[in-house]
Amino acid sequence: MEHGLDGSAPIRAMYNRTPPPRLLSPHSKEDSEIACRPIHETREILKKTAKTLFCDAGRLCRDSSLHPFILLSCQKAQTKAHTALTKGRTTLDNMLIGMALLVGIVLFRFAYTTYGPRRRFLKHWAEGLEAIKRKDFAAAEKALRVCVRAIPSSAVAQRMLGGTLARQGNLAEAEERIRFGVDLEPRNGLGHAELGVFLTLFAPGRAQEALDAFREALTHTPELRDALAKDPRLANLHQDETFRELMQSDDDEE
Predict the structure, then answer these.
(1) Cα–Cα distance between 117 and 125 in angstroms, integer?
(2) Which residues are CB-contacts of 204 (< 8 A; sequence separation ≥ 6)?
(3) Does residue 87 sit within a domain?
(4) How many domains does the chain have?
(5) C-alpha span between 139 and 143 (Å, rounded)
(6) Which is it for the CA torsion 218, 224, 226, 229, positive or negative?
(7) Second label for 211, Cα 20 to 30 Å away, from 51, 95, 152, 229?
(8) How far, in Å, are 55, 139, 158, 166 from residue 133 at the CA level?
(9) Contact indicator for 236, 205 with CB cutoff of 8 Å
(10) Is 167 within the bounds of a domain?
(11) What is the CA radius of gyration of the chain?
């Protein structure tokens, strides 16, 4: 018989010990359900994550104004998400892929909510200005609507869209857009002046509202006085006493 170094215990006895009991016996149905529960929960989380990424990446792929590199990344992410949805497994590799997809969602949403709207705004803003120069107000309206959807807080885009709508006869929405642009920048005299011009041209029966708008414009931006006095679109007001008083500078009164 083989003995240890001290001659007291057989070496073979070290290898014949009874193994410790398993924490979870594979033969126990209850233990098996407990063991598989985290895996099933993880699988559902990854499935929802992949589905969210698939939708977000698809929405980004339809945005032609994004950088080609971002579009290519979105297409690859959409493909990976589709694979995860259709062939999802509970292996460690797929879990790691799921974590990577989650990071991708954050990055893509950041690009969509910051980089995307600004780029769309600048692109369609230029198109809108070019369309206005060509007097193609239908094309200008289409481009400017994209601008106000991308950045609704742009006062100048709201007022520009209002002016474009007025040229096409949509006076109700035009006034709404112009007033909204004025409310976004209440201290911008140019916005009040544009509202006054709109009321003068398209609502001649509301001359007092137009005069109030011009008064508000000159309160915030007195430099507009000369431009308004010489504006040919306001010829109907040149004989109005209140308008002439507004157009007189302090030096003229002295």
Answers:
(1) 12
(2) 236
(3) no
(4) 1
(5) 6
(6) negative
(7) 152
(8) 38, 11, 18, 16
(9) no
(10) yes
(11) 35
Task: List the CATH number of the domain containing 233.
Answer: 1.25.40.10
Q: Please check whether residue 161 is in contact with residue 177, taking contact to mean a CB–CB distance below 8 angstroms.
A: yes
Say if residue 9 is exposed, middle or buried (CB neighbours under 10 Å; 0-12, 13-18, 19+). exposed
pTM: 0.57
pLDDT tens for the chain, 254 residues long, are 444 444 444 444 444 455 444 444 444 444 444 445 455 565 566 566 666 665 665 565 555 555 555 556 556 665 666 665 565 554 545 555 555 665 665 666 655 555 567 888 999 999 999 999 999 999 999 999 999 998 899 999 999 999 999 999 999 999 999 999 999 999 999 999 999 999 999 998 999 999 999 999 999 999 999 999 999 999 989 889 999 999 886 545 44
Amino acid code (one letter) for 97: I
In a domain, 56, yes or no: no
